Write a sequence for this structure.
């Protein structure tokens, strides 16, 4: 039997209700007939409700391992919770915020039941597109920064919630000092178009400067000037740090091609970047992050939870290192670090 849409469900329900009323009027002399009609109407409505279907739009900023894993986890959770009752409309914005806006506006026009915004620019575009359709973010580092919320309390409210990929920034700074206690200078490499990257490097800079390092930020505007800025950062510093930056994540080969031959260690905000160009990271599982977001979506779609009251959810971090790069640079990982597979 084919799935019915929400609009079709309302039509069926209305028709069943009308039929129940007519049956009751025509059989007013028979209590048994009236009861039977009412029972039949209730049973039919219940069957229609159980067959209700949902359409979910996914706007993913760009294709790279972290975001891809989050999307997969989200889809798997919805399949586990709701089976084939969910139709997914997936769109990749090719790392263009303007395309995110076009995608999200399209989702609103088509009347999707929920939007998954995978990465900060996607979340910003979705929030600008609708105040009514539920929006869940994932792979978003700091919602207060992303959405311009001062004194963010952990719950966005309205039609927005989601999950965060933020690993504790003080622990990330401590990771750099643990591996290179003699380092004097650190360069922070990030895309200036990504506000959550700016947030992370600002915090990391404060932590490292408090430990006595000289810290310099190296922002680049897009992938076109990543190589030149990365080269400058590698030339001028003992160690480099890259936050959970989508542009770097999609171009780790550029960073690795510059830093590894120079023997310059790169510390990363997440596993995907570390596996491409880094030595170590405090990593989260983006698949698990996406799966948690999918569980939240299932609760919202079925009416079990109110998105306005759902706090942002986080996941645990694991210390990991890139064995290949560490071996090439002659680095020995601390005992509590796990090799990236």
């Amino acid at each position: 039997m084919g799935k019915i849409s929400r609009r079709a469900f309302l039509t069926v329900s209305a028709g069943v209700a009308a039929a129940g009323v007519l049956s009751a009027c025509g059989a007013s002399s028979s209590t048994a007939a009236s009861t039977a009609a009412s029972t039949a109407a209730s049973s039919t409505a219940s069957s229609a409700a159980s067959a209700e279907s949902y359409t979910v739009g996914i706007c993913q900023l760009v294709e790279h391992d972290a975001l891809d894993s989050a999307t997969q986890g989200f889809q798997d959770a919805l399949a586990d919770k709701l089976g084939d009752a969910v139709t997914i409309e997936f769109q990749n914005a090719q790392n263009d915020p303007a395309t995110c806006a076009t995608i999200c506006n399209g989702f609103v026009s088509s009347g999707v039941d929920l939007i998954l915004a995978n990465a900060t620019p996607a979340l910003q575009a979705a929030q600008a597109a609708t105040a009514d359709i539920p929006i869940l973010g994932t792979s978003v580092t700091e919602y207060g920064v992303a959405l311009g919320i001062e004194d963010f309390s952990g719950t966005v409210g309205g039609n927005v919630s989601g999950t965060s990929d933020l690993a504790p920034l003080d622990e990330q700074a401590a990771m750099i000092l643990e591996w290179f206690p003699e380092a004097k200078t650190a360069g922070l490499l990030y895309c200036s178009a990504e506000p959550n990257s700016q947030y992370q490097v600002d915090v990391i800079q404060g932590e490292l400067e408090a430990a006595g390092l000289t810290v310099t930020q190296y922002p680049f505007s897009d992938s076109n000037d990543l190589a030149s800025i990365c080269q400058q950062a590698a030339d001028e510093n003992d160690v480099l740090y890259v936050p959970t930056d989508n542009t770097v994540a999609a171009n780790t080969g550029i960073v690795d091609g510059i830093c590894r031959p120079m023997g310059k260690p790169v510390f990363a905000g997440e596993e995907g970047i570390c596996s491409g160009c880094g030595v170590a990271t405090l990593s989260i599982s983006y698949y698990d992050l996406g799966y948690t977001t999918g569980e939240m979506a299932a609760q919202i779609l079925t009416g079990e939870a109110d998105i306005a009251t759902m706090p942002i959810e986080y996941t645990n971090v694991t210390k990991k290192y890139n064995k290949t790069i560490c071996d090439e640079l002659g680095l020995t990982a601390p005992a509590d670090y796990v090799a990236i597979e």
In short: The longest helix spans residues 6-26. The radius of gyration is 25 Å.
